[in-house]
Amino acid sequence: MAKILSINNKKVQDNSLTCTACHYTGPANWNGKCKRCHRPLHYREPYSLQKTWAALIAAMVLLFPANLMPISIFYLNGQRLEDTIYSGVVSLIDSGNWPIAVIVFIASILVPFIKIIIMILLLFSIHLKSNTDPILRMKLLRFVSWIGRWSMLDLFVIALMMTLVNRDQLMSFTMGPAALYFGSAVILTILAVEWLDSRLIWDSYGKSKPTK
Fold it and tell me: Which of 42, 53, 198, 211 has the fewest beta carbons closer than 10 A?
């Protein structure tokens, strides 16, 4: 979609597009792809909001079993002990490992919900054409993208314990069913961030900016 610029009261067609992969800015080649990385160029990524909403809603649904079902199963002398994410944090606090408990709580409970809340606010701001500072919204989007890499910390700790705590029939440790739901929810939130075309945040900027 070409943009029309007004220069000295003359309308000039601007065919420049920005590639979201390599950040090349310029006209597309003969088949509508980026001249640098050959990725298809679009004025706005098609179905960006729909895909983001779908991934976000699916992640929210998966977080319920991820937090209610056991994420770790511990066998000791034939006795089965199960822990959800929250009960695991409580167990760590009771055993005196509160620094690890704080890390697990932030990475496994606080971060996923913060990501979802921020993404919902950003999506609503786009739909409602909010006048909120787009730079602030871009910083929030980058923050969500950066913090997403730490969401898998809980699964990493469980996988590490599986390799360390294994003593044949006397003691063993394995992942619970919640691990699959939690991992899927984290991946979906990461995809939601990746699928959101950040250029949509700026669409209302020119309209809301006061003219001098």
Answer: 211
Give, for all 212 residues of the chain, the pLDDT tens digit.
444 444 444 443 456 677 766 777 777 777 778 877 877 776 777 788 999 999 999 999 999 998 899 887 777 777 787 888 888 888 878 878 788 788 878 888 888 888 999 999 999 999 988 888 889 999 999 999 888 767 666 666 666 655 555 545 555 667 788 888 988 998 899 899 988 988 888 877 655 444 44
For every residue of 60-107, DSSP letters joined together read HHHHHHHHHS-SEEEEETTEEEEE-HHHHHHHHHHTT-HHHHHHHHII
- Provide the residue type at 100 as one letter: I
